[in-house]
Amino acid sequence: MTEEKKLPQLTMRRAALSDLPALELPLGFQLRHFEQGDEEKWESIVEKSFGWNRNFQRKIASHTYFKPERVLFICDHGTPVATACAWQQPEWEEDCGYLHMVGVDPAYSGKGLGHSVSLAALLRMREDGKRRAVLETDDFRIPAIRIYLKLQFQPAYEGADLQERWKQIYRKLNLPFAEES
Question: In which domain, by residue range, is 130 found?
Fold first, then answer.
C-alpha cells in the first residue's frame, strides 16, 4: 500500500443539482441501470478500475439506500464498461446525494465515460429529490478529480493539511489554485 492510499479521503461538494447539463453519451454507448445478473459485471468494473475485489451484495445491494435505478451502467453493445451509484450516506443530510463507486474499465479510458456516468448519477440524484451532492476521493485519482471539477464539484478545505493536499493536486492538474475564502 502506498503512502497516498493511507491518507484520509478528500471531500468535494456540488452546491446544487438544479443546473446540471443534459446527458449526451459518447456515440455508440448506452445508459441503463442495474438489472438482476449484473453483480459480476459491477464487480469486474470495480476490480479493473480500482484493483479492489468488492462483493456487490455486501457493498451495494445490502445497503438500505439500494434500488436498481441508483446503480448506473454505461454499456458498449450491451456490455457494462462504466458504473456509478447515485447514493445516500447517513453522514450527509437528507437532501444531499453521494456520488459513489465511479469506475470505468481501463480499456475504455479517454472516451468521456467517467464524466457521462457521473453526470447520469447526478441526474438520478436530482430525480430522487436531492438538491446537492458530495463525493469522496483520493489525492492520486487525478483523472477522476479533473472530471469532478468539470462537473462543478468544489474541494472542501477542512484544515491547513487538506489545503496543502489540494494545492498539490491543482499543480498536477496544471490549474490555478484558489484558496477558500
Answer: 12-173
CA-to-CA distance for 8 and 49, rounded, in angstroms?
20
Distance CA 132, CA 139 (A): 23
Could you list the pLDDT tens digit for every one of the 181 residues in the chain? 344 457 889 999 999 999 999 999 999 999 999 999 999 999 999 999 999 899 999 999 999 999 999 999 999 999 999 999 999 988 888 999 999 999 999 999 999 999 999 999 999 999 999 999 999 999 999 999 999 999 999 999 877 788 899 999 999 999 998 775 4
CATH code, domain with 72 = 3.40.630.30
Here the cell at position 95 is 437532501
Whether the Cβ atoms of residue 74 and residue 25 lie closer than 8 Å to each other: yes
Element of type H or E holding 47 = helix 39-50
Does 178 fall in a domain?
A: no
How many CB atoms lie under 10 A from the CB of residue 127? 12
In a domain, 180, yes or no: no
Please, which residues bridge with residue 71 across strands?
85
- CA–CA separation, 11 and 41 (whole Å): 27
The residue behind cell 493536499 is 165
Q: Would you say 15 and 132 are in contact if contact means Cβ atoms under 8 Å apart?
A: yes
